[in-house]
């Protein structure tokens, strides 16, 4: 029995012509999956990633404040150990086609062992199941944070377990009194 492919590398970049984020995922069998993420989709995905981070922290403690601290520590550790400097190596096989697929739906299968399955799907057709451990959730989150800053989407993507923290930044507007 052969092992399923293992995630090898992620890449997230902003395409200003499309006003979309390009997420590329390569597995160790040299397959590459390409997806478009809109600002709206990222706003839907972020709380799900933070819930996944919270689920990992919940394995260690039931206290919400402690879980939040553990999620922040896990994020710092995962990001510190990740290799963001290496150039993304393109795959040679494209199971979903050469053109990126526009994502529209998200599902998560609960924690089984040390992973959770994040499923990224278009409105119709095939997507991808990503078996993510705690480290990969945080690495993916960091890549998305960085690409969102480049995109100037003005999203506040905070790493806060359980809160699903996403908010629009506060704009300085004149105060109106009634």
Structure described in brief:
The protein has helices at 39-58, 64-81, 134-151, and strands spanning 7-15, 20-27, 32-37, 101-112, 115-122, 128-132, 156-157, 166-167.
Which strand-content bin applies to the residues? 25-35%
Helix percentage range: 25-40%
Report the radius of gyration as a whole number of Å.
17 Å
**Ends distance:** 71 Å
Low-pLDDT ranges: 162-178
Strand order of the largest sheet: 1-2-3-4-5-6
Largest sheet: 6 strands, mixed
- Class derived from helix and strand content: alpha+beta
Q: Count the E strands.
A: 8
H and E order: EEEHHEEEHEE
- Tally of separate helices: 3
What shape does the CA trace take? globular
Give the mean pLDDT: 85
Secondary structure topology:
Elements: E1 7-15, E2 20-27, E3 32-37, H1 39-58, H2 64-81, E4 101-112, E5 115-122, E6 128-132, H3 134-151, E7 156-157, E8 166-167
Parallel strand pairs: 3-4
Antiparallel strand pairs: 1-2, 2-3, 4-5, 5-6, 7-8
